[in-house]
Amino acid sequence: MFKNYFKTAWRSLFRNKLTTFINVFGLGLSMSVGLMVMVIVQDALGYDRFHPHPGSTYRVLSDYTKRNGEHWAMASTPLPLADALQKDSSTVAAVTTVYPALGGVATANGKELYIDGVFVHPSFFSIFGFRFNEGNPVSALQQPNTIVMSKATALNFFGKTEVVGKTIKMANGVNYTITGVLETPPGKSHLDYAVYGSYSTVAQMEKDGLLAEKSAAWYAFNAAYTYILLKPGAKKAVLQSQLNAIAGVLNRGNRDGSCALGIQSLNKISPGQAYLGNDNARGTSWGKLYFSMGLGLLILLAACFNYTNLTIARGLTRAKEVGMRKISGARRYHVFLQYVWEAVLLSLLALLFAFVILSVILRYQPFNDSYEMIPASFRFSSRFFIVSLLYAIVAGTIAGIFPAWILSSFTPLRVLKNIGTARILGNVSLQRALIVFQYALSLVFIIFLFAFYKQFSFLSKSDPGFKREGVLIVPLNGLKEGVASQRVASVPGVKSVSAASMKFSARFGGMNDPIWLSDRDHAINLNYYYAGDRFLKDMKLAFIAGTNFPPAAGEDQEHYILLNRKAAVAYGFTDPGKAVGQKLWINDTTQLEVRGVLKDFNYENMGKPIFPLAIRSNPPANRYLYIQTAAADRKEIASKVQGALQVLDPGQPVTFSWLSEDLDAGNSQAATISLLGFLGFIALSVATLGLLGLVVYTVEIKRKEIGVRKVTGASNAQIVHVLSKSFVKLLLVAGLISMPVGWVLARLFMQNFVLRGSFGIGSVLLCFLFLLAAGLFTIVSQTLKAAAASPVKALRSE
Amino acid sequence: MIKITNLEKIYRTEEVETVALNDLSFQVKEGEFVAVMGPSGCGKSTLLNILGLLDDPDAGSFLFNGVEVAKFNERKRADMRKKNIGFVFQSFNLIDELTVFENVELPLMYAGVKKSERKARVDEVLEKVQIMHRRNHFPQQLSGGQQQRVAVARAVVNKPKLILADEPTGNLDSSNGNEVMQMLTDLNEAGTTIVMVTHSEHDARYSHRIIRMLDGHTVTENILV
């Protein structure tokens, strides 16, 4: 029987190639979104799977309620907690703190790189499944000033992994001996740092004033993270009561509020929970996952609905088959199962198409930029295939149930008498409403997308307030600025060379520290960069008061600081001239004189408001060369600059980028536009296929009417008009609903930007015309075909 | 085999009431070949639908093999139909997606007959209607006469006691028509009861008895044999 279902379904799909194509295309597109969601979900659920004791490893959570009712749920805990827990050896096998206080600029092997790091207890490597490429996991972090680094970090600094015994120096002057190098982990982990320093270093650093004194601070709930490995057979409840006891002691000594401590299983950490503060979970959050799943489901249901519509419309032509099957002895469930199976088969074909789309997306990563929408590390697995298969079967079943129910309800008599089958969908008001809904949704999508595109292309082309054309940026990667500048300056076509500590991009890439005028309590957390006088000149940054750094500023000692206008205002100088000559404290011992105030410029994403900014001068901190080039062949200049620098460090590849391209890429949101465009395309395709289904159905039931009209003298154009006008009305209704909604949404979106592109009624109308054209094409293609058909056949078949 | 008494069937719409069968009574004995004739709208097809248990009468009695089936529900009618009745239609009604073999196999499959037996029985009946050489073709690849032979094969494969034929030669030329009529005659001679609705006096002459209908009831009965 099953074989018969398969054969009939397969031949029917093959015979009706256009319908099959429409269905496979529509369902496949929607299913590709579903597969993308599955990739995202699989990635999000794939964190921390390689650690050795997933069932007995926990992160301690804290919960603090102030007396005034303010409440925080946090993933972080005070530093002393780990040692306190370690004392109870009956339940706890191992405890470690993860104290994220080790990050910053580090120097090793003559290279300076920014790294993120944490201090951990030696037991860290017995709790988590990181394996050592070099060194001994048991002894690696026993001593102060020892450090274990990731394989990637070792390669970045040294170009090799055999680096145990070598030294790395952090920006605060502390030296660490490398005692281990990790292997690349076999999977993702929410704990993923460049370096892991020994926790025993912390005490000395606190003594030296290099770290705030927190190691004994029981009420610093946001200081660090605590992880526990339970002993085999130990009960969670016992651990919880131990934590309750600790919280009880803390609460007795605290008048400000009360705390509670809880535990969270290691495999529940990622995806993160929105309510949890200080969460160190990685990847996406449950909220975003649910949103993605909801969106995928919505799109899939819309496509399933189209399949339903088209199949019922086609069902009119298959009524005879149903009748004959029933006369031959088929029960209703036989026919029902046959049609459900047909939908499932089609859904499996659509799955193949969806896999093709997904493979293209995974290969070319069109939706990824600095944020990985689709995890690049994803690899197809047998589990993924099985889940996809189940997904296709469920989707096919959902799509097939309703038409199967309708078609299997045909009685042989009804079919043989050729009555009653025509209007199986009643007056199709539900279908019409859904078409309006689908089209309205697509149009809102299209309008929003258009606004999004216009806004970001406007931003990417706007003047940021500094020179953006013809500027080549080359990272120094440990090369000496002076030598590198000299070599580059001699390249033909290079007009000037300067350097700075950062690269202009959509996200602020500089530093941020408290800097104050006279009262430390009123310090402002100021963004700042390092750059020299030549950089300011070359980049055409305009002064509104004071002057540039003197040449060679900061080479011996740092004396001066420049502010942007916002920063001057933030320090209370609405007249920027008055800021000049003022002295700002950058730490407890050093003051810098404000030498000039710059006109505000967009130093990060153009859409963001400009925040206070300072520019300091410290040549060793410069990490990028800014090369001003003449308007010549860009490729040639870039390759000559590369060649000039390559000889200085032949082992290190010289990379470069053009400032204007960086800014375009950073501001144009190409990846987001691609994703929205793809979703918009799916929404429009699904709506169009839905409309097509309804038109096909209507033409089918009006075949006789068309025939009669033709034999009574109607022209093709008149018939097309009669058949099409009700559908065009649907499109107009959809337009009337969605144009104002889309326009309001677009305006609300643009409110988020200080600089706004133009987006008026004309743009909205343009979107509508586009949608109308797509709809009209769909309608007319079918109605014209019906009008051109010979009336004889239609009338005879009646 | 069939005994109908005072059978009535009325089709109603909001404004019009059409009497399709009006106080109709007759019998068909086992092994008989009966032709039903009459002008369009006289109730022939309605009668055939009721005899085929595709429709139920509004009043009257319908005994099939001594069992009152007039008030059977759809499920019981379908069961009775499956076991006892084969249909042959004017427009063949073959399933386009199935081959000749698969079309004929269909009733056996729904009856739960095992695969090996199905094959044997389908082959046997295809042989009988001389369409064996086309067993793997699709209906669209056959001539009208060949399609009707397949339809007859499908109607008889389940060895029904009764075959109901609705204008079986209506879409065929005279030579193919005669072939199909000869096949029905052969089946009848082998013991199958046949009730055939036809407009053709020529075809009707293959039967034992002609029932002529007008306005929903019988007007004459001609016994030919």
Automatic annotation (TrEMBL), chain A:
Domain ABC3 transporter permease C-terminal: 295-411, 678-791
Organismal lineage: Bacteria, Pseudomonadati, Bacteroidota, Chitinophagia, Chitinophagales
A Pfam family recorded for this sequence: MacB_PCD
PANTHER family reported for this sequence: ABC-TYPE MACROLIDE FAMILY EXPORT SYSTEM PERMEASE COMPONENT 2, MEMBRANE COMPONENT OF TRANSPORTER-RELATED
Entry keyword annotation includes rRNA processing: no
Top-level taxon: Bacteria
An example molecular function term from Gene Ontology annotations: transmembrane transporter activity
Keywords of the record: Cell membrane, Membrane, Transmembrane, Transmembrane helix
Protein name per UniProt: Putative ABC transport system permease protein
Transmembrane segments annotated in the record for this chain: 21-41, 289-312, 333-364, 384-407, 433-453, 675-699, 727-746, 758-780
GO cellular component labels: plasma membrane
Domain annotation MacB-like periplasmic core: ranges: 20-245, 479-631
Main location: membrane
InterPro entries the UniProt entry points to: ABC3_permease_C (IPR003838), MacB_PCD (IPR025857), Macrolide_Exporter_MacB (IPR050250)
Record's bilayer topology term: Multi-pass membrane protein
Compartments in which it is found: Cell membrane
From TrEMBL, chain B:
Any GO molecular function: ATP binding
Domain ABC transporter: 2-225
Pfam families, alphabetized: ABC_tran
Keyword ATP-binding: yes
Protein origin, superkingdom: Bacteria
Stored CDD domains: ABC_MJ0796_LolCDE_FtsE
Entry keywords, A to Z: ATP-binding, Nucleotide-binding, Transport
GO cellular component assignments: membrane protein complex; plasma membrane
SMART domains assigned: AAA
Family statement: Belongs to the ABC transporter superfamily. Macrolide exporter (TC 3.A.1.122) family.
Name listed for the protein in its UniProt record: Putative ABC transport system ATP-binding protein
Originating organism: Niabella drilacis (strain DSM 25811 / CCM 8410 / CCUG 62505 / LMG 26954 / E90)
Organism taxonomic ancestry: Bacteria, Pseudomonadati, Bacteroidota, Chitinophagia, Chitinophagales
